[in-house]
Amino acid sequence: MNSINQILSQITPLDEQVMKNVSKHVDQLTKPIGALGRIEELAIQLAGITRKERPTVNKPAIVVCAGDHGIVEEGVSAYPQEVTKLMIQNFIVGRAAINVLGKQIGATVTVVDVGVNGELDHPSLVKKKVKNGTNNFFTEAAMSEQEAVKAIEAGMEVAQSLIKQGHELIIIGEMGIGNTTASSALIAAYTKVAVQDVVGCGTGLNADEHQHKIAIIEEALRRRNINEASALHVLACVGGLEIAAMAGILLQASANRTPVIVDGFISTAAALVAYELCPAIKDYLIISHQSVEPGHKAVFEYLNKKPLLSLDLRLGEGTGAALAYPLLDAATRILTEMATFADLGIEKKKEATESTM
Amino acid sequence: MNSINQILSQITPLDEQVMKNVSKHVDQLTKPIGALGRIEELAIQLAGITRKERPTVNKPAIVVCAGDHGIVEEGVSAYPQEVTKLMIQNFIVGRAAINVLGKQIGATVTVVDVGVNGELDHPSLVKKKVKNGTNNFFTEAAMSEQEAVKAIEAGMEVAQSLIKQGHELIIIGEMGIGNTTASSALIAAYTKVAVQDVVGCGTGLNADEHQHKIAIIEEALRRRNINEASALHVLACVGGLEIAAMAGILLQASANRTPVIVDGFISTAAALVAYELCPAIKDYLIISHQSVEPGHKAVFEYLNKKPLLSLDLRLGEGTGAALAYPLLDAATRILTEMATFADLGIEKKKEATESTM
Looking at the structure, do residues A138 and A22 belong to the same domain, yes or no? Predict the structure, then answer.
């Protein structure tokens, strides 16, 4: 816990002065004021995170955190637990969606075993296993607080190592059969939104299965007797090892002024864990997309955040974040490559309504 | 008009069989059914357009069509007409937003003068000037039908030439002070949505200026005595030369089975012109983003189309389409680079609701 407390104290508010300077520069570029919308906002946010007036996001690194979930014993998932391991093999041979989208944006893909149930061995797999999957949180806490801390620290170590290697941006993604259930439970516990408004029907669950998933989470939350005042306690009660690790990445990267793109529903649950541990992280959060899970919206409202994309994705792995990366890249490029009105010899006009100037 | 009629007959429905085959392949990839949402839809649409089961969108070409608008005499724009020429110089020296975003995606940028008011000369400028800007459509038709045809043909020639050079995808963008006014008039005329629901306040016009813009368009539409049954007549009455050229690009590219990404409000008005000339083009349309102009939504509803992005953009030039390009690139890559469940030795499960499988 010491290492986590140390990191929390290093996460300071975004640099207002740098953001003001960049905002002024953006308004001098050859376009109407605000015409690049959220791309401009991203440029300013990236400047605030990195404390650089001309930030770059070169060498993006994707981290897929993997962990299993004891709660699958309750029949909440359409896939068997073995699929976690099979998908990890798919990541390692480079043929999953995240590999394809990672290659497209020139990103490395690091797979971290934080808590997969069973042995996995491959030279390119980062082994940080805390335990063989969480406990079934319907019958006992998913993990101890010590285990939750270990999983957060695993993420911190991975982030630290990637940043040292010169990666200027990290994408967090995950793999773990059962992890929408853990994420839904975390979101309901932290935001106090009703479980039935967090858990989705998806395309795979019929009405009965959907109701079953809701009932399991509701009863589990009752049984765990959760003290919401302790962010770590909630995480240990109903969270996931890979979720904890992603929170650790967010915390470490933010302390190091390195931007992170949050992926979908499960990654956003991790962002919520990081926020509950350290509210200052809110302004650092860049959420890539709106997933189809209804609980995702609950977190956006709770954190007052707006995702960049809305493409009906529900894959995880970091795929939505990888798809959003070019928007951040674009944001940094406009700051250095566009001409200003002064360059063109045009006196800047008042804010214009015309779409093309 | 002969060349246009010839092209219209070459635009045939998307290839249903190819789309079915690709859809089947997408469902065998290592992800839950439908988990890549609109990326999967794009993959299938691109297959239908190109008639290829493994389409590619290499060597994207951005075309910025430029033209001036006589209607600016009525005080509908926050920028003076000279800005069109100055921005073209900015495009040519490569320092406008579209150059930056074009470079990011490895696209060429072609600037076409279809109707800029005044002389422009540069070896890299494509000269297809039909006239020195449209007439003020408050007092007379913006152009003759012959001029509208010439402008459409200009776009067709540019598209033909780019496709011959091996560009597998075209992005249409524009520059022309006053062209949101022409676009709003076109959209109101074609869709019959009330002018006041099409014209936006933007950030530059105060309430009075906004009302003035609405009043000018309403009165102009009355005076032009428009026969909505003739798509070409509407275009000639209140359209723009660069808008006609973009419609020409869409028609020619679709006939050649080459996908086009439509940019923002003005490009979408051009897509609407193309649709009114040739309804079969609807399934070819890929609209990059939802602009802040309210009239944009009216067209989406009219065409039953959904833009890919919503980033509060209102710049034009093709910038929104350039930002959307990586999504199309991703769509083609998943078709060739992802493993199938059979590759992994997993029997495919029923549709799953879990976000990560």
Answer: no
